[in-house]
Design a protein that fits this description.
Elements: H1 3-9, E1 13-17, H2 28-33, H3 38-56, H4 62-67, H5 77-99, E2 108-111, H6 114-122, H7 128-145, E3 149-155, H8 163-174, E4 181-188, E5 191-197, H9 200-211, E6 217-220, H10 238-246, E7 260-261, H11 275-284, H12 289-298, E8 303-307, H13 313-329, H14 335-343, H15 345-350, E9 364-367, H16 368-374
Parallel strand pairs: 1-2, 1-8, 2-7, 8-9
Antiparallel strand pairs: 3-5, 3-6, 4-5
Length: about 375
């Protein structure tokens, strides 16, 4: 695909921003060494290094970190925050300055976890420094809470999980005050991310066999994670601290351009008066990724451009859905016919809402760092 092809896709495309992960470098070193992209990436890494240094009271050098390919550890969570946000910003600057691709001409933006903050920045609602300031000032508390944190993937092969049952079991485990567990992300009707302290995820795994009406399994991740988007952060009053900090963040009283589809609410919730309120809820409310996926498909978007270093959870969710749709419909109707059905507004209005999921195999996904490294900006006049 050349640059003109990408420009033509933008009016019916969404930009999707990734969040924190245990791997946050991706192909950034290649972009930094690139003759065309290098100066842009270097500048954004330097700016974010200076902002991060100010808030964490130590010298931060993201340029050197990228050059040396040193992944930030959990203890360096603040530098990971700065890394992800700066690289996402750098990639979009490369698009705008070298390919004349304007994100404001797209249909919408969305972001998983930290990615929602990046989306608000790029849509003109919060400055880059202001957006970084909140998670950076909360990072130390999040790392302290992560010391005994476990992440579990709850999934069922037999049917949809009942969210109220999952919440009820979490609350029962929390009641003896031996640790807190909560829903972090709703990935799909049959898969949920849980985060829990100490032995709580293992307790959930054991009790889910008898206390959930849908047969389910729990796979425990070996890494430790900051417990954002769960009630675990209440322990250090992190949501309240965020609310206080948000009073003084320079937020524009305007609508984001393009609109931001929030994973806090699963809707286009941002209005000029409620940005601080939603960002406050962002701290401890689960990420409603599935609601966002359904909304994107219902809107008929043709392309999703994944921004950031090594995007993971959003493209993986769409990929699993696409594979499941193809398996479910194999031998029933030709997939191309299903795609045409899902794209006809008059027919879509008559079918159940979830018929839009049939479009999943037909959505084009572009990983921006890969696209940039395959494109040839130097050929532009």
């Amino acid at each position: 695909m050349n640059d003109s092809d990408l420009v033509s896709l933008i009016p019916n495309a969404a930009f999707a921003f990734r969040g924190y992960n245990v791997e946050n470098l991706g192909r950034t070193r290649e972009l930094l060494k690139h003759p065309d992209y290098g100066p842009i990436v270097h500048k954004q890494l330097r700016i974010s290094s200076e902002i991060c240094s100010e808030f964490v009271s130590r010298h931060v050098d993201l340029v050197t970190r990228v050059e040396e390919q040193r992944e930030p550890t959990l203890e360096e969570y603040d530098e990971a925050i700065a890394m992800v946000l700066s690289v996402e910003r750098a990639q979009l600057h490369c698009l705008r300055e070298l390919f004349d691709v304007d994100i404001t001409k797209s249909r919408l933006c969305m972001g998983y976890s930290l990615g929602e903050i990046a989306a608000l920045t790029e849509c003109g609602i919060v400055s880059h420094a202001g957006a970084m300031s909140i998670p950076l000032q909360l990072a130390t508390g999040c790392v302290e809470l992560a010391h005994d944190m476990k992440l579990g993937v709850l999934f069922s092969r037999e049917g949809s999980l009942k969210i109220d049952e999952v919440k009820h079991l979490c609350q029962q485990i929390n009641q003896p005050a031996a640790g807190v567990i909560g829903i972090s992300t709703i990935l799909s009707p049959n898969s949920i991310l849980l985060m829990g302290q100490g032995d709580t995820v293992r307790q959930f795994k054991k009790r889910s066999k008898t206390e959930l009406s849908t047969s389910a399994y729990v796979r425990i991740n070996r890494h430790r994670w900051p417990p954002l988007h769960t009630p675990i952060v209440w322990e250090k009053s992190i949501p309240n601290r965020a609310a206080v900090l948000l009073h003084s963040v320079d937020v524009k009283f305007a609508l984001p351009t393009p609109p931001v589809l929030s994973m806090v609410t699963g809707t286009f919730a941002y209005e000029p008066h409620n940005v601080r309120e939603i960002l406050h809820r962002w701290v401890d409310h689960p990420q409603l990724l599935w609601d966002v996926v359904v909304e994107v498909l219902s809107l008929g978007l043709a392309t999703i451009i994944h921004v950031g270093p090594k995007p993971n959870i959003i493209p993986a969710t769409f990929r699993r859905l696409s594979e499941n749709v193809q398996l479910q419909t194999r031998g029933k109707l030709h997939m191309r016919a299903l795609g045409r059905m899902a794209r006809r507004p008059w027919l879509n209005a008559l079918l159940p809402q979830k018929a839009a999921l049939l479009r999943a195999p037909f959505v084009k996904h572009i990983v921006l760092e890969d696209w940039l490294l395959e494109a040839k900006p130097a050929s532009k006049s």
